Amino acid sequence: MAAAGSDPWRVGFVGAGRMAEAIAQGLIRAGKVEAQHVLASAPTDRNLCHFRALGCKTTHSNQEVLQTCSLVFFATKPHILPAVLAEVAPVVTSEHILVSVAAGVSLSTLEELLPPTARVLRVSPNLPCVVHEGAMVIARGRHAGSSEAEFLQTLLEACGQCEEVPEAQVDIHTGLSGSGVAFVCTFSEALAEGAIKMGMPSGLAHRIAAQTLLGTAKMLLQKGQHPAQLRTDVCTPSGTTIYGLHALEQGGLRAATMSAVEAATCRAKELSRK
Ligand SMILES: NC(=O)c1ccc[n+]([C@@H]2O[C@H](COP(=O)([O-])OP(=O)(O)OC[C@H]3O[C@@H](n4cnc5c(N)ncnc54)[C@H](OP(=O)(O)O)[C@@H]3O)[C@@H](O)[C@H]2O)c1
C-alpha cells in the first residue's frame, strides 16, 4: 500500500492489546501494509513484544505514533482514551486519519477531544477479527469523507466483513456482534451438551457443534439466503429437525436471543452516555 507520494503509508496503533494486534496482523497478512511500516505504542512491553514479533516497530510514546503515522488506530480501553487523546491532540494534523476502536466512545466525544477539523472514524470490531473473520462496522465523523470511509473499509476487510453504518447503529452492532460472540458460544455449548447428554464424547460434540455453526454461517453468507429459508430446507415433514425445532421454540430460544441482543444494545447505549 502506498500513499499518494512515494512514501509508504505508515499505520500506527496507540494501545497494543488484543484488538490492536488482531487488526495489525490482518493488515500485514493481507499485504495492506508492511510490518516495518507499523508503529505501536503502549506504556509497557507486555503486549508490544507481540508487535515486535510480527516485525513491527514499537515505542512507549503515543505522540511518536502520531508524528510517524498518517493512519492511527486508538485501541486503548475506553476509560483511558480521553486522556490519551488529550496527550496526542497537540501533534494531530489535517493529514491524519484517526480511528477509534473503543466501545461506547461517541464520534462527538472524540471530536471534542481532538483539534476542530480532525478526520475521525469509529470502528466497532468483534473478537473473530483475531482469525480474520470479524464482523465490523465503521461510522465516520464530521470531517471524514466517503473516501476516508472507503479507504478504511478496504483496509479492514483484511480482518473480516466491514460495512459503513450511521453512528446510531454502532451500539446495536455491539449488542448483535460484539456481545453476539458470547451468545453464539452459549448456543454452541448447549448444542454440544445436548449431544453429550445423548452419549457423544465431549470433545467430538464441541468440535461438531462449532463446525455446524461455521458451515451454516458460510451457507447463509455465500448464498445470501434468509435463515428461515435454510431452516425450511433442512426440515422434512415429520422428520427429526421439525421435532427438534418444536422443542427449541417451546424453550423460548428465539425470544431469549432477541432479548439478549436488546439488553446488550441498551447497555452499550447506557455506557455510551457516561
Ligand atoms: N476485545 C474485543 O472483543 C473488543 C470488541 C470491540 C471493541 N473493543 C475495544 O477495543 C479496545 C481495546 O480492547 P482490547 O481488548 O484490545 O484491550 P487490551 O487487550 O486491554 O489492550 C489495551 C491496550 O491499551 C494500552 N494502554 C493502556 N494505557 C495506555 C496509554 N495511556 N497509552 C497507550 N496505550 C495504553 C495497554 O498497554 P499495556 O500493553 O502496557 O497493558 C494495552 O496495550 C477497547 O476500547 C474495547 O472497547 C474490543
What does this structure look like?
The chain is an alpha/beta fold. The chain has 2 domains: 11-168, NAD(P)-binding Rossmann-like Domain (Rossmann fold, 3-Layer(aba) Sandwich); 178-273, Orthogonal Bundle (ProC C-terminal domain-like fold), CATH 1.10.3730.10. The chain is built from 12 helices and 8 strands. The protein has helices at residues 18-29, 45-54, 62-68, 81-88, 107-113, 146-156, 170-178, 180-197, 202-223, 227-234, 240-250, 253-273; strands at residues 11-14, 38-41, 57-59, 71-74, 97-100, 119-124, 134-140, 160-164. Strand 1 (11-14), helix 1 and strand 2 (38-41) form a beta-alpha-beta unit. The longest helix has 22 residues, at 202-223. 34% of the residues are buried. The structure holds NADP nicotinamide-adenine-dinucleotide phosphate (NAP). NADP nicotinamide-adenine-dinucleotide phosphate binds at residues 14-20, 41-44, 46-47, 62, 75-78, 80, 84, 101-103, 125-127, 178.
Please outline the helices and strands:
Layout: E1 11-14, H1 18-29, E2 38-41, H2 45-54, E3 57-59, H3 62-68, E4 71-74, H4 81-88, E5 97-100, H5 107-113, E6 119-124, E7 134-140, H6 146-156, E8 160-164, H7 170-178, H8 180-197, H9 202-223, H10 227-234, H11 240-250, H12 253-273
Parallel strand pairs: 1-2, 1-4, 2-3, 4-5, 5-6, 7-8
Antiparallel strand pairs: 6-7
Helix pairs in contact: 1-2, 7-12, 8-9
Bound molecules: NADP nicotinamide-adenine-dinucleotide phosphate.
NADP nicotinamide-adenine-dinucleotide phosphate binds next to helix 1 and helix 2.
